[in-house]
Amino acid sequence: MSTIILLLITGLGLGALYFLVSSGLSLIYGLMGVLNFAHGSFLTLAAFTGWSIARRMGPDSWGSFAVALLAGAVVGALFAAATELILVRPLYKRHIEQVLVTVGLALATVALFEGIWGPDPIFISGPAWMKQVTVVLGAPIPNDRFVSIAGAVIVLVAIVLFLNKTRYGLIIRAGVENRSMVTALGIDVRKAFTLVFSIGGAAAGIGGVLASQYFGYVSPALGASLLIFAFIVTVIGGLGSLAGAAIASVLVAVLQQFANYYLGIGDVIVVLLLAAVLLIRPKGILGKQAA
């Protein structure tokens, strides 16, 4: 029983990281139809920024961890906004070029990060409590898993409130449903595009700082490795569906943890799940059928 609890909560912690990355991907595709392959770069830069700040302030304090989270969110949002304004905006409705430019940015930033911080993982430390464990029904759960879960829940609630309670949130929701109609009403959706990119980048930035604590290191490849599963989550949940991304994040991560423990083939099981969804329900769990 304790093993099941351990795998379940650890899976939820990993699913929280998947959600923080996939939520931005889902929002960006839902409103703009852009598959952003550079999204992992936002996460990686935020992770390195958080690590650099925490190292200077003292990595073992909660204050430095909080500042690192805030800095990661800001850096992720700014990097994402700059990417949309400079690279993506001139290429709207040119999907092949969008894919090429975001893939190129992803490759270039990995090389840049390796040149600045080196290609090898940098092992990090954090607040002492996060490295300790809490026993839940006999299972010793690392405390950083709870922090990851709490971070994802807070981000999910914040995005939902923003989308439902603010003017720009309503514009974004309307744009997801019918972008042409929103434009016809005289609303400049370009600002909403930049804002969505920024929100996605901020969520990825928070995910980067939390991922560095979850895995215990930062590296230039951190974002790319999480981005693969984030895309799988986005497709399974339904492109453009935030709720679908949340459900799929939990499903994929928990299944991956159990399959890794009992069979040693967690990644293979996830790919098989993706194939099954594409064959049986191509639009995903909560995705909408394309017209």
Automatic annotation (TrEMBL):
The lineage of its organism: Bacteria, Bacillati, Actinomycetota, Actinomycetes, Propionibacteriales. Belongs to the binding-protein-dependent transport system permease family. LivHM subfamily. The keyword Cytoplasm does not apply. This is Branched-chain amino acid ABC transporter permease. It is found in: Cell membrane. It comes from Ammonicoccus fulvus. It is a multi-pass membrane protein. InterPro entries: ABC_transp_permease, BCAA_transport_permease. The chain crosses the membrane at residues 6-27, 34-53, 65-87, 99-117, 146-163, 192-215, 227-254, 261-280. Keywords: Amino-acid transport, Cell membrane, Membrane, Transmembrane, Transmembrane helix, Transport. CDD domains: TM_PBP1_LivH_like.
